[in-house]
Amino acid sequence: xxxxxxxxxxxxxxxxxxxxxxxxxxxxxxxxxxxxxxxxxxxxxxxxxxxxxxxxxxxxxxxxxxxxxxxxxxxxxxxxxxxxxxxxxxxxxxxxxxxxxxxxxxxxxxxxxxxxxxxxxxxxxxxxxxxxxxxxxxxxxxxxxxxxxxxxxxxxxxxxxxxxxxxxxxxxxxxxxxxxxxxxxxxxxxxxxxxxxxxxxxxxxxxxxxxxxxxxxxxxxxxxxxxxxxxxxxxxxxxxxxxxxxxxxxxxxxxxxxxxxxxxxxxxxxxxxxxxxxxxxxxxxxxxxxxxxxxxxxxxxxxxxxxxxxxxxxxxxxxxxxxxxxxxxxxxxxxxxxxxxxxxxxxxxxxxxxxxxxxxxxxxxxxxxxxxx
Length: 373
Known about the structure:
Blueprint: H1 2-27, H2 31-58, E1 66-68, H3 70-84, E2 89-94, E3 102-104, H4 106-122, E4 128-139, H5 141-144, E5 153-162, H6 192-202, E6 206-211, E7 217-224, E8 249-253, H7 257-269, E9 273-277, H8 280-290, E10 294-300, H9 308-318, E11 323-328, H10 336-340, E12 346-348, H11 353-364, H12 366-372
Parallel strand pairs: 2-4, 8-9, 8-10, 10-11, 11-12
Antiparallel strand pairs: 1-3, 4-5, 5-7, 6-7
Helix pairs in contact: 1-2, 1-7, 3-4, 4-6, 8-9, 11-12
């Protein structure tokens, strides 16, 4: 319950960021500004995926693995390091574009890279060089015997190297233990490397480590290469932009002002007229005077005074032809009854612009959408 509550609040925090970033891109012309917006979008998306991982952990679900290109994930991690690490740390990358794809959870691989990069940063308090590289590797029987946990086959290898302090010999046997840390309590939890090890093992890979006190550390992550080619970026396929509105009036009811505002802006920019309400009671007041004109009601499920389910019932009583789209930052687990009350027209926060526009277009013109599909 605590995790679900945290997820709800995080989704409400992330929703305005996910919606606002494309708006900022429309007005930005400076290359540096566009680069920062890209980083903002990528970071928000990683946040969304990490929130989903929290729920997967709580509900006992496994990670979602897909065919991915490590090249893209490594470039994102390298960019994050360049933009956030101290300037006395030089970030060098050697990431070829022809890496063999792997079957993996992209968010978890990103987490592995960031954990290793943060450890490298902390090992170079006076500055140094952080190098990220990758290669394709074929291991035969003899080569596999050189690595603990290895087996013959095709591997995609990720390397994270630093020129830092190295790992002392007396510490080395314990680095994979959960909660073991040589950092001050305020500087680390001791879960970084244990998390790395767990993720790599769950991906049927293994880790090679080379370190020397005072002479740096190099981690090599071996992930089994997939037998099928990767499609798109991180397993994603391009999504077409749905058609906008034609002046239809949409009522947006949400007690989160930033979400309410950003949703309104998105719809207005795409051909809809929009009115908003901060709770269910005020939404009913709007429906009482303009109910026959409102074509679509977009309502949060949990709101003060009157929740989204009750609001939808009242709205349909006032205007039987009104279309209702439910939105929520709550997890789907345990909420199936409420979701069913919206007849399948439902979006989980944070949602992207194309998902919002597609959902509204689908409930307004379901036949047209079906024919296009």
